[in-house]
Write a structure and sequence with these properties.
This protein is mostly helical and about 90 residues long. About 45% of the residues lie in helices and about 0% in strands.
Length: about 90
């Protein structure tokens, strides 16, 4: 675990304990999944994506940019568009 991920894990756990909340409630407050909360509270040392880092900073009251994050976070424009389904009606001609 890196020093930064360890600092984040400790801060998240201490925050939850001080607030008396579950991972589920922290997930609700941050708009992240419970799995994401558990990952960043664990000893796996994952670096959060920028969105998660920003949400953690907000809930912890930390300054923006104080949590290092992964360099790349897909934006909607970067994602593969769904296949064009126009003209497909599910019936054979």
């Amino acid at each position: 675990m890196s020093e930064e991920s360890e600092r984040l894990a400790k801060a998240l756990i201490e925050f939850r304990e001080a607030e008396g909340i579950s991972t589920r409630e922290l997930a609700r407050r941050t708009a992240l999944s419970q799995a994401t909360i558990r990952l960043h509270e664990s000893d796996r040392g994952a670096i959060p994506v920028p969105f998660a880092a920003r949400r953690f900073e907000e809930v912890l009251g930390w300054a923006p940019g104080s949590i290092p994050s992964a360099e790349y976070e897909p934006k909607p424009a970067d994602r593969e568009p769904p296949p064009d389904a126009s003209g497909v009606n599910g019936r054979a001609s």
